[in-house]
Amino acid sequence: MRIDIITVLPELLKSPFEASILKRAIAANLVAVHFHNLRDFTSDNYKSIDDTQFGGGAGMVMMVEPIDKCISSLKSQRSYDEIIYMTPDGETLHQGIANQVSLKENIIILCGHYKGVDQRVRDHLITREISIGDFVLSGGELAAAVLCDAVIRLIPGVLGNETSALTDSFQDNLLAPPIYTKPREYKGWKVPELLFSGNLPKIEQWREDEAYKRTQKLRPDLLDD
Fold first, then answer.
1. Given 1.10.1270.20, 2.60.200.20, 1.20.140.10, 3.40.50.2300, which CATH number is that of 169-224?
2. Mean pLDDT score, 49-60
3. Is 141:111 a contact under the CB 8 Å cutoff?
4. Average pLDDT in the 15-31 region?
5. How confident is the model at residue 72 (pLDDT cuts 50, 70, 90)?
6. Is CATH 3.40.1280.10 correct for 2-152?
7. What burial letters (b/e) apply to 111-149, b meaning 16+ CB within 10 Å?
8. The predicted structure's pLDDT at residue 52
9. Side-chain-facing half-sphere of 136: CA atoms under 13 Å
């Protein structure tokens, strides 16, 4: 998988990809992540990427030309399955979207700034708009990092255990069941005895039942789906 990220602050975005699982995935050539500074595609000496709104109004708007030039340059080198714009008014990211995007071969992620991008970018260049929640950040870089983390961990070979991602919360519209590790007892707090029984069918049924109970208590809306 190849991910090309268009940003005005590449230095802000790089650090999450230089540690932990994302770093190992890149080192193992399971994913390639490239950062493209939008200012490299400007046409004036000031490397301007934003301007005032037509019709007046507070806040600056990212211009269509540099974004179009950057995307066109990338598309001239390869085909892309998705061109994603990170925006608060996009579809809210959930596990299903992460699953879908993880199956793509090449994607572009555009990070917004200021009041957002010229609407013509959204109308003619973007194929999908994704939000990480109903709130506004100073830019799309952190949201892009969240999306990448959610997607990359699903790529086969990235996690040590291939089935680990499949048992995460939300994969089957249920929250994950309780999990335990050593010690068996701590301060009188005990691990359920069933987990030491070796009876795998009963353990799996217990986990399924507990997942349903947790979901019913904490996120009943998921059961409505």
1. 1.10.1270.20
2. 94
3. yes
4. 94
5. very high
6. yes
7. bbbbebbbeebbeebbebbbbbeeeeeebbbbbbbbbbe
8. 96
9. 6
